[in-house]
Design brief:
Layout: H1 2-21, H2 25-41, E1 49-57, E2 60-61, E3 72-83, E4 88-97, E5 102-112, E6 115-125, E7 128-131, H3 157-173, E8 184-192, E9 195-198, E10 200-202, E11 205-207, H4 211-214, E12 221-232, E13 237-246, E14 261-270, E15 273-283
């Protein structure tokens, strides 16, 4: 009798795990479709929320209705990544508003069963990240975020995170004796709120993604509250959400890197090397919490260049 009960309990547990961990890509993107349809209609009740769902906008705890805005009109650019085993999704989008303005948007969802249990959004309008802005430049989604990689050629879940972490480690150690280069393809590109910042000719010279690290340009920058909430093995894309601040006791040499920011970065990775980075960035003072527990990294007052 006891053996039978244990067997039934194990079967029940397997059913629960299966319900929570085996999702089709189309099913997960369907939840994203519902969210954006509700956003454009300004109808929060159309989103299938769990009763205890946690929701943040730019790291502030909100109601779902508190994350919507009335003049959102249409989605002009969007790509999605998903983790079919964990029920996680990540989206970068550009939203056109009724007054013609554009909004950069990052959306992260957590699905359990048939309900959304977590919504994390980062929203930036022009001027809310200083001069980092060219949302109109994002018209067609790069193939780097759309291709299905053959299973035998895919990087593993942890390999993908390790490659993304190499980027932050390069940020944290650049300009020091402990500098560790990021795993970057020579022609990798970086976009911040649609503005291309690397992988192009600038002032007659090629501006590589590695150049800023190799020259120690960001040596005062502190990267903290690092998280890797969505890893899409089929696409080879990692969503990492971090804070950009200044290392304790130091001062930025550049206006462009002098402000505290909340950043969501989508790393497109091929064979262990970063091919492209799409980032949604908004200013947020270091003193204000993200509302989410970090995976790794020094805190905002850490004086050491890195902890390994």
């Amino acid at each position: 009798m006891l053996k039978k009960r244990i067997t039934l309990l194990l079967l029940a547990m397997l059913i629960v795990v299966s319900a929570r961990s085996n999702y089709e890509r189309s099913a997960l993107t369907g939840y994203i479709d519902q969210y954006f349809k509700a956003l454009i209609a300004n109808n929060a009740s159309a989103v299938p929320l769990a009763g205890s769902a946690k929701i943040t906008l730019n790291s502030d705890i909100k109601s779902l209705a508190g994350t919507f805005w009335e003049n959102a009109e249409s989605i002009t650019y969007r790509f999605d990544i998903v983790n079919t085993r964990r029920g996680d999704t990540g989206t970068e989008a550009v939203i056109k508003n009724s007054d013609g303005s554009l909004t950069m948007f990052m959306l992260r969802l957590k699905i359990e069963g048939n309900k959304i249990t977590e919504i994390e959004a980062i929203k930036c309008n022009k001027g809310e990240a200083d001069q980092i802005w060219d949302a109109g430049n994002l018209r067609e989604v790069s193939p780097s975020y759309l291709l299905s990689i053959r299973e035998v050629e895919r990087d593993s879940y942890y390999d993908l995170i390790g490659t993304a972490e190499s980027y932050w480690r390069a940020f944290q150690t650049n300009g020091s004796s402990e500098y560790r280069p990021a795993r970057l393809l020579p022609d990798s590109k970086r976009f911040e709120n649609g503005m291309q910042t690397t992988g192009m000719i600038k002032d007659g010279e090629y501006e590589s993604t590695a150049k800023g690290f190799d020259t120690g340009f960001f040596k005062e920058r502190n990267i903290w509250d690092r998280r890797y909430p969505v890893v899409d093995e089929e696409r080879g894309v990692v969503l990492s959400i971090v804070r950009f601040g200044i290392k304790s006791g130091l001062k930025s040499r550049s206006e462009a890197t002098s402000h505290d920011r909340l950043v969501a970065e989508f790393f497109a990775i091929r064979s262990g090397l970063i091919q492209e980075i799409q980032a949604v960035i908004v200013n947020r003072p270091d003193e204000m919490s993200t509302g989410w527990v970090p995976d790794y990294g020094p805190d905002r007052t850490e004086k050491d260049t890195v902890k390994q």
